[in-house]
Amino acid sequence: MFLDLSIGLFFFFFWAFFYVLKLGPQKSGSGQLPPGPRPYPLIGNILELGARPHESLANLAKTYGPLMSLKLGTVTTIIVSSSRAAKEVLHKNDQSFAHRTLLDVVRALDHHRSSVIWSDADSKWRNLRKICNTEIFSIQKLDASQDLRQKKIQELLDYVDQCCHTGQPVQIGRAAFTTALNLLSNSIFSSDLSSHASESSQEFKNVVWGIMEVAGRPNLADFFPALRSIDPQGLRRKMTHLFGKLIEIFDGITKKRIELGDGVARKRDVLDTLIELTKQEGSDFRRIDISHLFVHKVRFLH
């Protein structure tokens, strides 16, 4: 991580040198922005975040109020830090604030175009949200999957019992991840992705954790968008590799289901619903979007 950051800093200072050379007279900040600390040249208020940004932001809010503006590199950022202000932004004015700043790493393989969280609030996004609400998170679907949850928990207990009888150590993290992974995969495409006796769950877990690690690293390209084209820390390249592994798995499952054709009895699960959506006339939902939607779901298994 430190090597990546060092290389990134080298590219940053190299770019900053030329940025300063061509920097012309700047207009004063907009009077429409909320109050905030005075930014330093080039780096803005990055140093004021410190090692514990959440605590630093809480302390800054005591001085500048629940709605304040910071300059993170060259990016102006508005910080909302009270329930009342959050309600105004997220509830009363949600459409106005629907477009959020993209992390550069989620641009890998155009993942941001098929994500419920990152995509624009257009017709495609509304379809994705509707599918999630009706096919995955609805009360009816959760009630209907009660037997499935009990079955997977029983499989977990059987695995622990087997380990006790054979004297094998129980890898708690791996066992819990396998259970959660199979619960999700059965809810979406009616089959297990792994088993407690297989090494595949650990490999899958490593990929998911790798995605969360890369997404959580400070990225110079997020603070200085002009650096995106060179990806100075290589984080987008790493995310492309990790996303690619998951997409290969999910697209293989989707392809196999499509090849079964209409002559085979449908399972009427989430995958079938998404496949039907791709076949609708005028639909902008593609097969690759199915894989990206599944990637979005498994990211929360860590």
UniProtKB/TrEMBL annotation:
Record keywords, A-Z: Membrane, Transmembrane, Transmembrane helix
Superkingdom of this protein's organism: Eukaryota
Coiled coil, from the record: none
InterPro entries to which the protein is assigned, alphabetical: Cyt_P450, Cyt_P450_E_grp-I, Cyt_P450_sf
Taxonomic placement: Eukaryota, Viridiplantae, Streptophyta, Embryophyta, Tracheophyta
Keyword Transit peptide: no
Protein source organism: Dillenia turbinata
Entry protein name: Cytochrome P450
Bilayer-crossing regions: 6-24
Keyword Transmembrane helix: yes
GO molecular function: heme binding; iron ion binding; monooxygenase activity; oxidoreductase activity, acting on paired donors, with incorporation or reduction of molecular oxygen
Family note: Belongs to the cytochrome P450 family.
